[in-house]
Design a protein that fits this description.
The complex is a heterodimer of chains A (661) and B (145). Chain A has helices at residues 2-29, 42-65, 72-77, 84-89, 95-116, 122-146, 171-198, 204-235, 246-271, 275-298, 311-335, 350-380, 389-409, 424-444, 449-466, 479-504, 608-651; strands spanning 506-512, 517-520, 523-534, 538-549, 555-557, 560-565, 568-573, 575-579, 582-591, 597-605. With 661 residues, chain A is an alpha+beta fold. Chain B is an all-alpha fold and 145 residues long. Chain B has five helices and no strands. Classes of the chains: A alpha+beta (661), B mainly alpha (145). Chains A and B meet through helix 12, helix 13, strand 1 and strand 7 of A and helix 1 and helix 5 of B.
Chain lengths: 661, 145
């Protein structure tokens, strides 16, 4: 019954998406001054649709919670013996469930927009809702026609197949929902961009409406990627934190586009410049979200992440992708000429720096896109090539290094036009920091070029991030500016972590007999014992490692080699010792014939800074949203008060008191 | 179809277990070389070689038995004095371009290098158009004002 309610809710939501689309489109066709009778349905349709789509997801969540084995999806992906939390998270650990989550978030964000957004002109709002309805409809169709999550089995299964053990981790509770919310938040930015383009309302007021959505989506993407990276780091058991895996790239590409969009929309809001550029990035960002969904969901990639294999679905999403991206760019091409370029500015201005970096971000995006899609393209012609870190790192760095340098300087420049001579001191300081840091590190040893450059840039950026605050009263700095400072500082922190991991990591692989000791960095690691233990749906060999730093009191680490029985698969559960200046990463492997155990240990200095940086970036984004919202609410309150006052004055008639001269 | 794929997946998952049971890993699969300089060389090379059994992981990041065998090959050959380039070429000759994460310019991979150059040109063009022209436009606008 539960599943049928979910399915019915999904169909109804799809019907409402049609209504929303027609109603929004009808509003556009009404002449000036009149209202189409159909137009009143767009907002309520979006709100009710949001409720229904979320209800459908809740029903699936419940089916997984009680392990309803008469549902095909539950039977293939869950298991009655699985811990409860993984039963819940398993809801989106599969193709159908994750698409339902996607659609649920899409509908929910459309509903939020329809319910609370009152600043836009009604016509633009209707165009936006029509586009949002159109996008939602495509994905409802995809779910209902090719991946129905509520399909029943003719005979209920006796037991489920279980969930991939790599996914049985708290990471699955955080990473996909955050990432999806970010992907889909960009759909609102897309719809808003299209709405504004269709009704020729690309202006700062529109940018102020769009900004919180872009910022919100960007924060969620940032946090989602950070969480995903840390998850891969501790779960895969080899200490890598970014693999340039196509699935990772699929989440990085929307982030790059969203980063560019966020900066561009800020320029539009503040300065009424970069109008067409903002619209184009809005289209690009959501296109990348859909492309990411296509790559992951269609099964064109087969990697640890991709748990869907079915070409029919791939063709469906590819069709949707072509329809939406093609349609959007067609409208863009037809209308972009009608949107004026906006205000002018000089090269050496804050806008100039932002344009430069937006172009650099787009170029990095192009490289990642090329490196991700090219192997798929050649595979279609039976030529298999691999594109990995040795390609992405240098090719990306060509654009990332100038970008980071400009990022250090950009916030110091004035809007519209500035003279470099004005910030001479800051420029010298930044250059000195880059060169000084590189010289200092090279003095101590030979390190690869990119980590070395990374260290230099990180030092300069860390200081440069706070330079915009120089000479200002800290109490009066707007919250949004603090957000920018923190986010830019977060980039420096993250970069520092990446560079340190790349340059200074130490690795020790050894076969150790119980009682034996291995030395790595300042740490002495003693294998005390290996004992078998059992969990709810696995058995494991657990090692007791006594780790002592510089002969200090030992800390016990317990890495495990786990064997799951449904599905049968073994995983390494790494054990981490986190210090302020890095992490000790330990993994236990197999037992050799002579009774010794394979132990892998890494000392990764400052590796944690990668994720601290990610969190800082996200936190900066949140501060920025809060700051902007507060200013906006204040402004709105002030303008209603002003309008009230004017109305009062008018109501008093001609006898209104004249101010005394 | 789905059942077949599932069976294949299960079989794939079961293979490592079976292999682990039947054969001990090669000596250098999980052990480092004595000489830190040689080990660093081997490790750098291993990070740029693809594990053929598992998608999107280098042989330095994989538990698959085949990755272990390949690590053993790399370390043994480095120890025997071969250069990383020689080993890469030997592996490519054996397993095809697919095994190397470091694409080399060839008839099948040239777009990977041509397109970034194109991107650099486009970037330069866009920047010149958007920023270069702006100065004279700005000047004109100011002159008009």
């Amino acid at each position: 019954m539960i599943a049928e309610i979910g399915l019915a809710a999904l169909w109804l939501a799809a019907a409402l998406a049609v209504l929303q689309m027609i109603s929004g489109a009808a509003a556009l066709r009404a002449g000036p001054g009149e209202t189409n009778p159909l137009a009143i349905y767009a907002r309520p349709a979006a709100v009710v649709q949001a409720f229904l789509a979320v209800l459908a997801f809740a029903m699936l969540l419940r089916s997984f919670a009680v392990t309803d084995l008469s549902l095909k999806l539950v039977a293939t992906n869950s298991h009655s013996m699985k811990p409860f939390i993984y039963k819940l998270t398993g809801t989106w650990g599969n193709h159908e469930g994750s698409m339902l989550l996607w659609v649920g978030v899409l509908a929910a964000s459309g509903g939020l927009l329809a319910a609370f957004e009152r600043r836009l002109p009604e016509l633009t709002m209707h165009a936006t809702l029509a586009v949002q309805g159109f996008v939602a409809l495509g994905f409802y169709a995809f779910l209902l026609l090719s991946s129905n999550p509520f399909e029943r089995l003719p005979v209920p299964a006796v037991e489920g197949n279980g969930l991939n053990p790599l996914l049985q981790d708290i990471g699955l509770a955080i990473h996909p929902p955050t990432l999806y919310a970010g992907y889909v938040g960009l759909s609102v930015a897309f719809s808003l961009a299209m709405g504004a383009l269709l009704t020729r309302e690309v202006n700062p007021a529109f940018a102020r409406v769009m900004r919180p959505w872009v910022l919100g989506a960007w924060v969620l993407l940032t946090l989602g990627i950070t969480a995903g990276s840390y998850w891969a780091y501790y779960e895969l058991g080899w200490g890598g934190w970014w693999f340039w895996d196509p699935v990772e790239n699929a989440s990085l590409m929307p982030w790059l586009a969203a980063t560019a969009l966020m900066h561009s929309v800020s320029v539009l809001a503040a300065r009424d410049a970069l109008r067409t550029w903002t619209i184009m990035l809005g289209v690009l960002a959501f296109s990348m979200s859909m492309l990411g969904t296509f790559l992951v969901r269609s099964g064109v990639l087969t990697s640890v992440h991709a748990f869907a294999v079915d070409p029919e679905r791939g063709a469906f999403i590819l069709g949707l992708l072509g329809l939406y991206i093609g349609g959007a760019f067609t409208i863009f091409a037809l209308r972009a000429g009608a949107v004026a370029e906006g205000k002018r500015f000089a090269v050496t201005s804050r806008e100039g720096a932002l344009v430069f970096n937006n172009v650099m971000l787009s170029a990095i995006l192009a490289i990642v896109l090329l490196g991700t899609l090219y192997p798929l393209l050649t595979e279609a012609f039976d030529v298999r090539v691999s594109v990995g870190p040795p390609y992405f790192n240098p090719a990306g760095a060509i654009f990332a290094i100038p970008m980071l340098l400009v990022m250090a300087v950009g916030p110091l420049l004035r809007w519209k036009s500035d003279k470099p001579a004005r910030i001479q001191f800051e420029l010298m300081l930044i250059a000195a920091l880059v060169i000084g840091m590189i010289a200092l590190v090279s003095f101590f040893g030979q390190f690869p070029l990119l980590p070395l450059l990374g260290l230099g840039l990180a030092a300069a950026l860390a200081v440069a991030a706070f330079l915009p605050l120089r000479g200002r009263s800290l109490k009066r700095v707007p919250v949004a500016t603090w957000g920018m400072v923190l986010a830019h500082f977060g980039i420096a922190v993250s970069l520092f972590g990446m560079a340190c991991e790349g340059a200074f990591s130490e690795e020790r692989l050894a076969a150790v007999a119980p009682g034996g000791t291995e030395q790595i960095g300042d740490f002495a690691v003693t294998l005390e014992a290996v004992t078998p233990i059992a969990g709810p749906n696995w058995t494991a060999m657990e090692a007791r490692l006594a780790v002592s730093q510089d002969g200090g009191a030992p800390v016990i680490l317990t890495p495990q080699a786990r064997s799951f029985w449904s599905p049968p698969q073994s995983t390494s559960e790494s054990a981490l010792l986190t210090k302020w200046n890095g992490q000790l990463y330990a993994v236990i492997g197999n037992q050799a014939e002579d009774g010794r155990w394979q132990v892998r240990i890494w000392w990764k200095p400052f590796v944690t800074f990668i994720w601290y940086g990610g969190l800082l970036i996200g936190f900066g984004g949140i501060l920025s949203i809060v700051g902007r919202m507060r200013v906006d609410l204040k402004r709105r309150a002030a303008s209603t008060k002003g309008a009230q006052r004017r109305a009062d004055v008018e109501a008093l008639g001609p006898a209104a008191p004249q101010p005394a001269e | 179809m789905i059942r077949w794929v599932f069976a294949a997946l299960l079989a794939l998952l079961a293979v490592p277990l079976a292999a682990q049971d039947s054969m001990p890993p090669a000596p250098y699969a999980y052990n480092q070389l004595e000489d830190p300089a040689l080990e660093a060389k081997a490790s750098a090379l291993m990070h740029t070689l693809r594990c053929l059994k598992c998608q999107s992981q280098s042989i330095a990041d994989s538990d698959a038995p085949m990755a272990g065998d390949m690590r053993h090959q790399v370390r043994a050959r480095i120890l025997a004095g071969e250069s990383p380039d020689q080993i890469r070429r030997w592996l490519i000759a054996r397993y095809g371009d697919y095994v190397s994460y470091e694409p080399e310019v060839s008839s099948t991979t040239w777009p990977l290098f041509a397109i970034p150059v194109l991107v650099i040109l486009i970037v330069a063009g866009v920047l010149l158009r958007r920023l270069g022209k702006r100065r004279s436009d700005g000047g004109e606008a100011e002159a008009k004002a």
